[in-house]
Amino acid sequence: MTQTWLVTGGAGFIGGNFILQQVLDKKRNIINLDKLTYAGNLDTLAQLDNNENYTFVQGDIGDNDLVAKLIEKHQPDAIVNFAAESHVDRSIDAPDDFITTNILGTFNLLKHALNYYKSLTNDKKNNFRFLHVSTDEVYGSLGDTGLFTETTPYSPNSPYSASKASSDHLVRAYHHTYGLPVLTTNCSNNYGPFQFPEKLIPLIITKALNFEPLPVYGDGKNVRDWLYVEDHCSAIETVINKGKVGEVYNVGGNEEKQNIQVVHALCDILDELRPVAGKCRRDLVTYVTDRPGHDQRYAIDSSKLQNQLDWSPSESFNSGIRKTVQWYLDNKKWSDRVLDGSYAGQRLGQDRDREV
Ligand code: NAD
Ligand code: DAU
Q: Which residue numbers in the chain have pLDDT < 70?
């Protein structure tokens, strides 16, 4: 029988890619609960407008009545929680929404998921899953060597990562205390189609296309591990279907890069695909004041997921980044409409002394 999954935050970057995969490729029945903050964009899901396996509900994961009614009405086989405030720089400028959505919103979902779970027949209970999508940033920052594993102690450094860490702990507690069948994934930096252009890769693509200065924080040597978004989505599906209840799985691409290497790669691909005589986009790189509390290095050990659940990424950084640039070139209308609103590429999260 077709499964029904309640997905939260599905109008965002990763949730949007996940829903497209699930509805178009897997024919799953998806209910998308999304508040449509600045980061939510229904254009991403326009091709599902008349699809009978897809339902959109605008609303807040923190809304008590709405979440209760939605779960009661749709009787989901799984709840997949993507909904969050996701941008570190914004969490420096204005942490409040991060606390409200990431912590209290997740708490509200857990409460209603548990009430619902308790009401299920044994058969449905055995199959029900609550998957919480989290981040490698909860582990803090690494030195030159080492990798985050699932047992690395939490050490979050930004209001964003602290709020995600808090939600991870609540998810864990709901399993340990009440027996809710939860799973948590902690993933590294995603990139790919439909990413809001406040994040490094789409921001640089957009600015480099227009020959604007390319802002690189600090010395550009901070390291991130990069994973193509569709690989993250397939990892989440794998964990829902095969993960051991109560466990945590790290997800990563094994593609560590310094930020400056990422920016140079984007400049070179754009110079090749959209050349302008006498101009080299690497010349646009501009080193700017560092992000306050900027984590130096993230690197992830995803061997548990690879060995125990037989998942591996399909894209390398080189193949994924090329596909991503091509997607932004082919879908300029999507980015132009996104940049029409409150965000137009300005610097965020610069001033730790402002009043918050
Ligand atoms: P995003 O900012 O692109 O999208 C977030 C979505 O959540 C938006 O559609 C927004 O409207 C919605 N939302 C926000 N507050 C809400 C609320 N109160 N109720 C309902 N919907 C709400 O985020 P993303 O990059 O797609 O990240 C999705 C999840 O994955 C987040 O939980 C994030 O922490 C996690 N994550 C992201 C990355 C990454 O590199 N982007 C990596 C690892 C984990
Ligand atoms: O590691 C997973 C996390 O990756 C997710 O949990 C977050 O939701 C997601 O936003 C991302 O966080 P980062 O802070 O790593 O992503 P961001 O794209 O903001 O920045 C990537 C790196 O690039 C970081 O070291 C800061 C730097 N940077 C960023 C911007 C926007 C710049 O140098 N210049 C920029 O203009």
A: 355-356
Query: Quick one: the chain helix, strand, coil %, rounded to 5?
Result: 45, 15, 40
Instruction: Write the pLDDT tens digit of every residue in 78-104.
Output: 999 999 999 999 999 999 999 999 999
Q: In what order do the strands lie in the sheet with 182-187?
A: 54-58, 29-34, 4-8, 78-81, 129-135, 182-187, 248-251
Residue pair 140/154 in contact (Cβ under 8 Å)? The answer is: yes
Q: Which atom of ligand 1 is nearest to the CA of 87?
A: 2
pLDDT in tens, 24-57: 998 899 999 999 999 999 999 999 999 999 999 9
Instruction: Specify burial of residue 104 (Cβ count, 10 A radius: 0-12, 13-18, 19+).
Output: middle
Closest ligand to Cα 349: 2
**Closest ligand 1 atom to the C-alpha of 190?**
40
The pTM of this model reads 0.98
Q: Return the CATH number of 4-192+229-255+293-317, one of 3.30.1300.10, 3.40.190.10, 3.40.50.970, 3.40.50.720.
A: 3.40.50.720
Nearest ligand (C-alpha, residue 16): 1
